[in-house]
Amino acid sequence: MGNTKLANPAPLGLMGFGMTTILLNLHNTGIFPFDVNILAMGIFYGGIAQIFAGLLEFKKGNTFGLTAFTSYGSFWLTLVAILIMPKMGLADAANAHFLGAYLGLWGVFTLFMFFGTLQSARMLQFVFASLTVLFALLSIGHFADNEGIIHVAGWVGLVCGSAAIYLAMGEVLNEQFGRTVLPIGEKH
């Protein structure tokens, strides 16, 4: 056994999260209509790939990574189910205010996870802080039946998703080159 080095699964999870978040929030901003691109990414990259990343974090002994990636992977799968089950005749469409409660619960979870990042890279802190704001705005927008707030949330989501992609690529490139190529604000 001895010297076995495990690969870092975080970039996979961050890319699945970041790219899927950008697609959904391109819709939330009003730039694109909702379509199958979001659903497919939500199932396979935002959902399944993040869950795989979380399980690989388990192997590395990283409770935070396990909890974050398996939870947000499950978020994407449940969100897709909320959206497609009514179209399949398996359930009634979600009540907009109850969807606000669903998003609010994810915001509370994300806020607690943000506190877990305070000893981590600054970019990870930024991803979780902006995600907390995103969930709060989406929740408020659904409770208030206010499309304007959801559009603002969409722009926050684009920033959040972009930050996750940047962090993922920073982790990959910095490791690959053995030096800082993309600064991510690592704690020493």
Q: Report the order of strands and helices.
A: HHHHHH
Distance between the termini: 29 Å
Major sheet description: none
Number of helices: 6
Q: Total strand count, please? A: 0
From the spread of the alpha carbons, the general shape counts as globular
Task: Describe the fold and architecture.
With 188 residues, this protein is an all-alpha fold. The protein is 74% helix and 0% strand. It contains six helices and no strands. The chain has helices at 10-28, 36-59, 63-84, 96-116, 122-143, 147-177. Helix 1 (10-28) packs antiparallel against helix 2 (36-59), helix 1 packs parallel to helix 3 (63-84) and helix 5 (122-143) runs antiparallel to helix 6 (147-177). The radius of gyration is 17 Å and the shape is globular. The two termini are 29 Å apart. 39% of the residues are buried. The model has no long low-confidence stretch (mean pLDDT 96).
What is the fold's blueprint, element by element?
Elements lengths: L9 H19 L7 H24 L3 H22 L11 H21 L5 H22 L3 H31 L11
Summarize the structure.
The chain is an all-alpha fold.
Question: Which descriptors would you attach to this protein?
Answer:
mainly alpha, 6 helices, globular
